[in-house]
Amino acid sequence: MMFNHPPKEWGPLEWLVAAVVVIALVVGLVTWNSSRPGPCGDGLEEIAGECVGVTDHAFDADERTESLIEAVADENARVRQDWENPSGDRARIPYVRVALMMPFTSNASSAMTGDMIRRALAGALAAQLEANSASGPHYQLLFAPDGKHLSEWKPVVDRLAEMTRDKEAPLVGVTGIPSSTTETREAVAELTRRGIPTVGPVITAASMNSRYFFKTSPNNEEFAKALSRYLDRYPQEERGLLLWDSREGDVYSQNLRAVFDRQFGKTYDLKNHNSHYIGSSGDDQGIPQRFADAVARICRDKADTVFFAGRDQDLPAFIKRLANEGGCDRGGKLRILKIGIGLEPTLTSADTERSLRRADATIVDASAYDPSWEETPGDAPSGFSPFHARFKDIESEHELGDKALEDGYAAMYYDGFALLASAVDRAYSEINALPSTKDVYSTLTFSTINGGTCTGCLVGAGGTYGFTGPGENNQWAVCKPVPVIEFPPVARSGDKEKLPLYRTYRGDKAKSCPS
User: Fold this and answer.
1) Which residues cross the membrane (predicted)?
2) Residue 514 scores a pLDDT above 60
3) Alpha helices, H only, 309-366
4) Which residues lie closer than 8 Å to 84 by C-beta, 6 or more apart?
5) pLDDT beyond 70 at 411
6) What is the residue-averaged pLDDT of the chain?
7) d(C-alpha 163, C-alpha 168), whole Å
8) How far apart are CA 309 and CA 243, in angstroms?
9) For the residues 266-290, what does the mean pLDDT come to?
10) Which of 27, 111, 300, 377 is buried most deeply by CB count within 10 Å?
11) Is the pLDDT of residue 198 over 90?
12) Cβ atoms within 10 Å, residue 268
């Protein structure tokens, strides 16, 4: 027999010890679970199936975006190490933080396509690397995902506000804000209420205004003025159609429709010549991209000019419908006038070009960025070269898609980060300390533009421009170039002079702005 005596029963002392052990194990497990990063990683939480929050670490996003996210995270780690534990005998380099607030995942109806996300992130990374190669404080680029449809901004803004109070590495500003919607308007208003300078690199809706919100792109009204000069230079029969996106909550399309109507409505009788459709970006509001009515009206009225008040993602479908069903005798070339940051690659694809030629149509785009700058650097802004060099290095290591510069997102997101970094550097050199968000805000408004000279302007990839005082022009950039691009280009005999370049709030007169 292995046991000669029955097992001893536990007394009160043994039960007490066991209870203490069990409680200790449970507390330890709870503490471990609460302290470990969630499924989204450090600084992020899962909300409605998406990772939302603020972090300087890599996290799960679209698969083709992950290498770029890791590159930013690596640079962030290097910046932190150069302050906390620099190698060798190197001096410690202080740093500040700039948040990139935008989606990092996409689907068919999201605010940004996957290619837009990658190019925007590549532009911001190029600006971070350029800023960190200079003297002065260094910069971390924080990821601030706020959901595919930009709707989960509240916890993001709460966290960003907390980070502005960090004494060692404060948050000094936010860039991103990729679209003009009801949600982004609310987010911008809250960022202003918290006193955080914010830059919208690709915002164009003229109604997107808030005291701390700076826009580096022209707004729809300034774009329309550049298009007006084009129409004055190349007049036709003034038979127009206003084609507008009727999706509720799209501040951009609503504002652009109103601007087109004010600028061109009387001349082209747009009140009686318009059609609408439901755009594909956003929540389900019905079958998108139904253009049969618009094409029928173009044929019936023999329109020669379409004013497109919608998003670029929907334009190829309209052009294809026009080519397939619009083969009526209009009596001349159809011009499709639009505004945009650049020329989205789907608009210049072989398929779209074939459709445009079949429809005898051309796109006329008032833009924040001219794709020809890459091929003719002599015509490019003076700040284009350092951006281009950084971007080409990044492009060689990451998948950014075809024609990665043409949509202008990389250049304008570069400028969005560079604008904040330039203000930080200027403030730091004056006060010899890391600036607060109030310091950055006031520095952003210190530009003085006098003809061809400017004090405090950004010398950016998209031009040399600045902001001329608190609230002046609702914090829209002054002297931002607005090139007008044709695709396919229209051959004209005897037209040897280029259309003069329009500059925001200064017109197209020579020497009205710095080059």
Assistant:
1) 12-32
2) yes
3) 315-325, 350-358
4) 92
5) yes
6) 91
7) 10
8) 6
9) 90
10) 111
11) yes
12) 24
Question: What pLDDT, on the 0 to 100 scale, is given for residue 18?
Answer: 53
Q: Per residue in 141-180, pLDDT tens?
A: 999 999 999 999 999 999 999 999 999 999 999 999 999 9
Contact (Cβ atoms closer than 8 angstroms) between residue 197 and residue 214: yes
Q: Which amino acid is at 285?
A: Q
Q: How far is CA 494 from CA 488, 491, 497, 498, in A?
A: 18, 10, 9, 11
At CA 34, angle to CA 29 and CA 35, rounded to 5?
100
Enclosing H/E stretch for 199 = strand 198-200
Spatial neighbors of 399 by CB under 8 A, at least 6 apart, are 64, 67, 118
Q: What is the C-alpha end-to-end distance of the chain, expressed in Å? A: 100
Q: Which residue has the tokens 């410690």?
A: 92
Q: Is the pLDDT of residue 205 over 90?
A: yes
The pLDDT tens digits of the residues spanning 233-269 come to 999 999 999 999 998 888 999 999 999 999 999 999 9
Q: Residue 3: what are its φ and ψ, rounded to 5°?
A: -115, 125
Q: Which of 124, 110, 220 is nearest to 174 (CA)?
A: 124
Amino acid 20: pLDDT? 52
pTM of the predicted protein model: 0.91
Nearest to 214 by CA among 457, 435, 382: 457
Calculated CA dihedral for residues 328, 333, 338, 344, nearest 10 degrees: 90
For residue 16, the SS3 value is: helix
DSSP letter for each residue of 466-491: B--STTGGGGBPBS-EE-EEEESPPP
**pLDDT reported for residue 19:** 55
CA gap 54, 42 in Å, rounded:
9
Distance CA 117, CA 400 (A): 9
Burial class (CB in 10 A: 0-12, 13-18, 19+), 23: exposed
d(CA 179, CA 388): 24
Place of tokens 């060692």: 168
Torsion of CA 315, 319, 320, 322, to 10 degrees: 140
Q: Which of 172, 182, 250, 169 is nearest to 212 (CA)?
A: 172
| Tokens matching residue 125 | 């990374």
C-alpha angle 299-305-307 in degrees, rounded to nearest 5:
110
**DSSP letters spanning 362-415:** EEEEEESS-GGGGT-GGGS-TTHHHHHHHHHHHHHHS---TTTTTTSHHHHHHH
Tokens for 310, please give them: 């919608």
The answer to whether 138 and 79 are in contact (CB under 8 A) is yes
At position 349, the amino acid (one-letter code) is S
Closest by CA position to 479, among listed 446, 515, 442, 445: 515
| Greatest C-alpha distance within the chain | 117
